[in-house]
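Hello,

Our lab assistant flagged a job as stuck in the queue for most of the afternoon. It eventually completed. Since we weren't sure the result was trustworthy after the delay, we are filing this so someone can double-check. Below is the sequence as submitted and the structure that was eventually returned. Let us know if re-running is recommended.
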Amino acid sequence: MNSQEMYEKMKSRLEKIVPDVELRIKAEIAVEIEELKVQKNAVILGHNYMEPALFYSIPDFTGDSLDLSRKAAQTDKNVIVFCGVRFMAETAKILNPTKTVLLPAERAGCSLAASITAEDVRNLKARFPGVPVVTYVNTYADVKAESDICCTSSNAIAVVESLKSDTVIFLPDEYLAKNVANETGKHIVFPTPGARNFTDSGLDYQMIGWHGRCEVHEKFTVADIQAVRAQFPDVVVLTHPECSPEVVAASDFSGSTNAMIRYVQETKARRYLVLTECAMGDNIAAANPEKDMLRLCMVRCPHMNTITMEETRDALKFNRYIIDVPEEIRVKAYRAVQRMIQIG
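-- returned structure --
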């Protein structure tokens, strides 16, 4: 495919989303990437939060964390370029220890992943001995290695219920944990680090949570939803379960990024408002030009925003930035991630 053909391909989706001059520049870079991909025997995975020009051009697969984890586990390519953030690239390396995994931006982190350490998990396990640990996939490899099973926003409830345990530790997203607790009828507590055990307190609880939050999703409020509904009473509001329980309750649908994409595709509402990362709202709008997608784009994830077409090209050209996971940690984390994938 030459640059003109790539431009036409991108324009067919993005002419109302991305300025034409940007499409022409990005199309040339996309062609470079396609050539490098063949030379390096590489596969490119693109998360739903990637900018539209990247999302609709170079990835071989797009999706949410769970979907891309499955694709990473199945690839026969020598090189995996993960257009996402570090914990996602680490997960790909956990599943593919013999392959080269590249993260296009060196500092593509995550506020949730940074909110908890492996030592924090070990301390919780010591305070609640024998209680299984469910860890959100939005964590680093050493935290996964301390866990019994991982989950994503799309299978969190299924994972918790699969353990058939009276009590579970659910880390690290405070809001996702509360939303799962609401859905499963469990009472959740949030122990203060270093405080005395709950085990002898007489308090009734079935979930133990942690005060981690997504710096994007915590910004959405019920007042935002009310303001939009006042202007557009017929709007259907979709939220990510990393939003607060109050925001989830005020919405019409809550689900993972893939679930929200399917909801818009399969329903026929007059208007939609998607409360999640801004780029994904643009990607959904581009895929559904016949539907009225309202904008409430208050914040772009600063970490996802570091992944650009230029950085992706240079990752392949210069073999950077290589993701490594120490084998001892990888083996332990692999068990938790594999259990998550098997549940689906």
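-- support follow-up --
The delay was a queue issue, not a problem with the job. The result is valid. Residues 42 and 52 are 21 Å apart (CA to CA). The chain has three domains: 3-108+304-318, 113-213, 217-294.
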